[in-house]
Amino acid sequence: MEGGIDTGKDDSLGVRRRGLARHLVAVQEEQRLRLSRELHDDLGQMLASVALELHMVRAGSPEMDARLERAAMLVDRLNAKVHDAAWSLRPADLDRLGLRASVEDLASVLCGQLGIPCEMDLEALSSPPPAEIALTLYRIAQEALTNIGKHAAPSRVSVTAHIHDDRMRLTIEDDGRGFDGGAEPGPGHLGLAGMRERLALVGGKLSVETARGKGTTIYADVPLAG
Ligand SMILES: Nc1ncnc2c1ncn2[C@@H]1O[C@H](COP(=O)(O)OP(=O)(O)OP(=O)(O)O)[C@@H](O)[C@H]1O
Ligand SMILES: [Mg+2]
Q1: pLDDT per residue over 37-52, tens digit each?
Q2: Where does the record place the Histidine kinase domain (predicted)?
Q3: Hey, whose CA ends up nearest to atom 1 of ligand 1?
Q4: What is the pTM of this model?
């Protein structure tokens, strides 16, 4: 019976769950680091050489030249995508910068690129939560901000964090396009599902408030105590 578990057992369950979460988050980060290196170092360099070759080759006939040029442009675009993917997979520099500065960095880079104001209130991230929670929140902020850059076309963004009753809430809000939150995102769209899974690993929860034309707010809630 769930309710019949005594406190001692409950504590050790909590400790084991945290240990497992820490381990899983560390494994994920390791995989991301490996993928990021492979994408950047191997794939990126090979694509760059193919692009160079294609840009140099001249077939002689105008039709073939046009085809070669299209192929070269496609490889350039592929290269840019590989570069973006490697960039977003790269390991968080949380040890050096800390969670607050790292999240501030992500938000300022995005808002700088979009040329829009960014409101931040991230004082709550100044005393860092346990490592697995910090990494989880960093990855949530990264995906939510990437989504804003890709899909929202907002005129402002806000990123805030608050602590209430041993729970941390990270909120990322935009006033952009919004979307149909009830619809299943479909196969190629892994970001929101990934955020949910990451949060579940540390006992947290993702909520999304959105509607077409009404902007999007992402809430990531995590318990700070085991
Ligand atoms: N801030 C946002 N503003 C508008 N639309 C959004 C926003 N965030 C998500 N969406 C919509 O929700 C869909 C699912 O998002 P999700 O992050 O799961 O996938 P994706 O960004 O399309 O692809 P992936 O994250 O796998 O590269 C997006 O395709 C987009 O239509
Ligand atoms: Mg996404």
Answers
A1: 888 888 888 998 998 8
A2: 34-226
A3: 148
A4: 0.80
